[in-house]
Specification:
The complex is a heterodimer.
Chain A lengths: L2 H25 L9 H13 L5 H9 L1 H21 L6 E3 L10 H23 L8 H12 L1 H4 L3 H7 L2 H25 L22 H28 L1 E3 L7
Antiparallel strand pairs in A: 1-2
Chain B lengths: L3 H18 L4 H23 L21 H32 L4 H8 L1
Helix pairs in contact in B: 1-2, 2-3
Classes of the chains: A mainly alpha, B mainly alpha.
């Protein structure tokens, strides 16, 4: 479709969409209303039955954990897709010694200092997913970001050497498999796939919410490995791979 | 006025679509898709809002406090993760398109095909 045709089509459809959307929005419950029957039930189940102080985590990893399993496989599939799409093609070669960009000493120092801090924060966010805002997805991203402070500090080669891609792929697969295994365990012990079969503990304790912290840990590892793999694939494209006929500037 | 937050979601959606329609660079197209998808975050969170209520985390507030709807917040979290992963795949595709065809302008790509 040519550019002109696209714009004309948009100009025709956008007003129709606007009118229909406004009509639909007027039929929705008014903004800020007190009518949330599903939410109220989710809150009751999370706090009274499952002792999970963070209701969002309880919904994601307990009450609707099957949805999260599907989401996890979307993540897994996209990591596979990206890694396959960005694999080196035959006409590309790796350059042996990628030039290290110039990094300010202060940037380097900040990277080194913040690396342990952000890894600790990532672990904290994953471990407290059932108590406070956070969980596996958020904590996993914090972990992966903290790890890439090495790149910010100018140590891309160390970053590449430290954890080989194959190891990351195995970790990623194992974490996703652990999620499925927890589901099967729920089938055996709790009477349903991904049923919450562990003792729930008391509301507000670190070990509470039954399977929620366990699934959170599995997701945290999976997300951290996934983000590192994705970023590694893109960084490799930018820093390591050149066309075979490419001449490095002297 | 209670319709206004919903309209913000619709406006974001149209804004992102307009950006995709008129885009001259596939990276820009992917960014516009992200904007379009963020309309769904606004819509979901708007549906779940409850005036004067607290966050659905009972760490500092006692059980029984009025909280906003946690279900749509969980859906939004799922939405964000899916958005991030789809963006990664699309950007990888963009890199490959640039390698194969030397351009990321959708109109030039079309000219190449013809």
């Amino acid at each position: 479709m040519s550019r002109r045709a696209r714009v004309v089509l948009f100009a025709l459809v956008a007003p129709v969409f606007s009118v229909l959307f406004v009509l639909a929005a007027r039929g929705l419950p008014s903004f800020g209303s007190d009518f949330h029957p599903y939410g109220d039930r989710a809150v009751t189940v999370a706090t009274v039955q499952r002792a999970s102080a963070n209701v969002v985590s309880s919904v994601n990893f307990d009450q609707r954990a099957v949805d999260t399993l599907g989401e996890e496989f979307i993540l897994f599939g996209s990591v596979i897709g990206t890694v396959v799409l960005l694999r080196p093609s035959p006409e590309e070669r790796e350059i042996g010694h990628p030039e290290e960009g110039r990094v300010l000493p202060t940037t380097r120092l900040a990277g080194y200092l913040l690396l342990p801090v952000s890894v600790l924060v990532g672990c904290y966010v994953i471990a407290h997913g059932q108590l406070s805002p956070g969980g596996g997805f958020q904590g996993g991203v914090v972990l992966a970001t903290g790890w890439h402070l090495l790149y910010v500090a100018g140590r891309y080669a160390a970053l590449r050497r430290a954890v080989p891609q194959t190891v990351l792929e195995v970790i990623e697969s194992l974490a996703v498999a652990a999620f499925v295994a927890l589901g099967v365990a729920g089938l055996g012990l709790g009477g349903g796939f991904l049923a919450n079969m562990l003792p729930t503990g008391s509301l507000g304790a670190l070990l509470s919410g039954g399977t929620v912290p366990v699934i959170n840990a599995a997701i945290g590892v999976a997300v951290a490995a996934a983000v590192v793999l994705l970023l590694a694939a893109f960084l490799e494209q930018t820093i390591i791979l050149r066309r075979a006929d490419h001449q490095d500037p002297p | 006025m209670s319709v206004l937050p919903y309209l913000v979601a619709g406006w974001l959606f149209l804004l992102g679509c307009y950006g995709m329609v008129t885009s001259r660079n596939l990276v820009h197209t992917v960014a516009c898709l992200t904007v379009t998808q963020s309309a769904t975050y606004v819509l979901l969170l708007t549906v779940g809002f409850r005036a004067g209520a607290s966050a659905p985390v009972f760490g500092d507030v006692p059980v029984g406090t009025r909280v906003v709807d946690p279900v749509v917040q969980a859906l939004t979290l799922t939405d964000i993760v899916v958005s991030a992963t789809v963006t990664a795949v699309l950007l990888a595709l963009t890199i490959q398109i640039h390698k194969r065809h030397g351009t990321v302008n959708p109109d030039e790509l079309r000219a190449l095909r013809n």
